[in-house]
């Protein structure tokens, strides 16, 4: 029997924060979370972890693939899951998110339960981003130019966020805290940490920002 796509059952669990910014809640099943975690562990074996360069952030980069500057290939399992997530987000915001994309960059960050955080920022790198979360819940904030106020998400294990990192989209985001004791039982290795996987298409595609969108500095 053919395995069901994770996108097939997710439509009741999606949240459109603004056009082109979609939070897919509970997108990955427990077994898929385990497989993704194990895939990240394997991919990280050849990378020496580095700490956040910003003193106000607290995380470690544990894996990095750049298909343009290196001859690495992003694992096919990462590409498949991110493509499914992109398609699901496109269903929720079809005029702004493409139904498919071709990531050429992948990285993974580990946030400790205690004082794990990411300073608010706009990526300023054009291209669609698919961001997976595993382990502890992150209090993840997002503020786009067309959002009435800053949204703070409970970004749980198995959730995905899809958005465009380009300057013209102005998607300000970061992590306030990592919630202690929130890791699901099927990921005991992450009992005191949150792990992310980000896959990015760094090239511009045909989709454009929502109308009347301008980068802004009011992120309250």
Automatic annotation (TrEMBL):
Entry protein name: Alpha-ketoglutarate-dependent dioxygenase AlkB-like domain-containing protein
RNA-binding keyword on record: no
Transmembrane segments: none
Cellular component GO terms, alphabetical: cytoplasm
GO function term, MF aspect, one: oxidative RNA demethylase activity
InterPro entries: Alkb, AlkB-like, AlkB-like_sf
Keyword Oxidoreductase annotated: yes
Listed Pfam families: 2OG-FeII_Oxy_2
Highest rank taxon of the organism: Eukaryota
Region feature Disordered, mapped onto this chain: 200-220
Organism: Acanthamoeba castellanii (strain ATCC 30010 / Neff)
Positions with a binding annotation for Fe cation: 121, 123, 173
Cofactor binding description: Binds 1 Fe(2+) ion per subunit.
């Amino acid at each position: 029997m053919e395995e069901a796509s994770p996108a097939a059952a997710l439509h009741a669990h999606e949240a459109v924060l603004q056009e082109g910014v979609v939070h897919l809640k509970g997108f990955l099943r427990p077994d898929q979370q385990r497989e993704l975690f194990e895939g990240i562990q394997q991919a990280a074996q050849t990378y020496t972890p580095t700490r956040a360069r910003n003193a106000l952030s607290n995380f470690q980069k544990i894996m990095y693939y750049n298909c343009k500057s290196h001859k690495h290939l992003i694992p096919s399992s990462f590409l498949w899951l991110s493509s499914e997530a992109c398609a699901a987000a496109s269903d929720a915001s079809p005029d702004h998110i493409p139904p498919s994309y071709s990531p050429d960059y992948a990285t993974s960050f580990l946030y400790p339960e205690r004082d794990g955080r990411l300073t608010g920022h706009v990526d300023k790198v054009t291209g669609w981003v698919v961001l997976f979360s595993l382990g502890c819940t992150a209090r993840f904030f997002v503020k786009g130019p067309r959002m009435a106020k800053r949204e703070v998400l409970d970004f749980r294990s198995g959730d995905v966020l899809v958005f465009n990192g380009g300057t013209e989209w102005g998607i300000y985001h970061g992590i306030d805290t990592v919630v202690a004791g929130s890791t699901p039982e099927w990921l005991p290795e992450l009992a005191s940490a949150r792990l992310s996987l980000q896959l990015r298409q760094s090239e511009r595609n045909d989709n454009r920002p929502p109308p009347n969108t301008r980068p802004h500095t009011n992120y309250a």
